[in-house]
Amino acid sequence: MNQFFPKHRFIVLTGNYGSGKTEIAINLAFLFARQEKTTLVDLDIVNPYFRSGEKAEAMNHAGIRVLMPTYAMTAVDIPALPAEIQSVFEVPSDRVIFDVGGDDTGAAALGRYYPSFMKNRESTLVALIVNCMRPLTQTPDDILDLADRVMNRGRLKIDLMINNTNLADQTTPEMVCQGESTLLACAEKLGSVPVITSGKEEILSHCELKTPVLYIRRYMMPEWMEEHHEHLS
Q1: What distance in Å separates the CA atoms of residue 82 and residue 229, rounded to the nearest whole number?
Q2: Is the pLDDT of residue 92 over 70?
Q3: SS3 of 170, please?
């Protein structure tokens, strides 16, 4: 794990709906919590339904501190960001993972904490997670446009790109490899940003990849996957 995040106390994960951003946030939280004091901040003000807070009880059980917007997981349409979130920059914690809402609208929530991130910029990593099988992130132009919008609204440069290309149980090694090629092309245009590939071990073990691998497990199934399964059945 330290090969990907060797010195970063704050890890910011952003990406479009269906990118797998929340899944990776939960995976990282459980992995870090085995050895370090870990906090997960659910900053998703875009999608009120599929969010890391749904696994708050399990994460609390694992010793993970979970913070989320006020009214999250309720019928209230617009969640508010509680003052307690600011405390992660003052309260000691080895790792703090920010699960940021998809696209530039969600990244705008980062702007509120911009001064705090800049004070800790050397220990902050911003990762853009991309699933090339999802609409709006299938081509290099689309992905670069998303990256620009996220950086402009969040005011933080992207430090890492994560290829999380998948189609649930229909994922093939060819899909993953094509996603890797697409992200490598984008990364070069963003100034040689590092790229890693994440996914289930049973798929990635059959891929001939050029990038480092982060194995993850599925803790949740988003709505688009459920719809896909219903369509296939």
Answers
A1: 36
A2: yes
A3: coil
Separation of alpha carbons 21 and 85, rounded Å: 19
> Poorest-confidence range of 58-62, 70-74, 134-138?
70-74
Helix (H, G, I), strand (E, B) or coil at 100: strand
The two three-digit tokens of residue 217, written as one number? 């497990």
pLDDT bucket at 45, cuts 50 / 70 / 90 = low
Instruction: Report CA 149 to chain centroid distance, whole Å.
Output: 16
Residues present in the chain in total: 233
- Say how far apart CA 68 and CA 157 lie, in whole Å: 24
- Collapsing DSSP to helix, strand or coil, 198 comes out as strand
- Please give the Cα distance from 125 to 123 (Å, whole number): 7
Both tokens of 71, joined, read 């009214």
- For the chain, give every domain's residue range: 10-232
pLDDT of residue 80: 62
Sheet with 95-100, strands from edge to edge, namely: 65-67, 38-43, 95-100, 10-14, 124-130, 160-163, 195-199, 213-215
H or E element that contains 213: strand 213-215
CATH top class, domain 10-232? alpha beta
Q: What angle is formed at CA 157 by the lines to CA 156 and CA 158, rounded to 5 degrees?
A: 115
| pLDDT score of 175 | 98
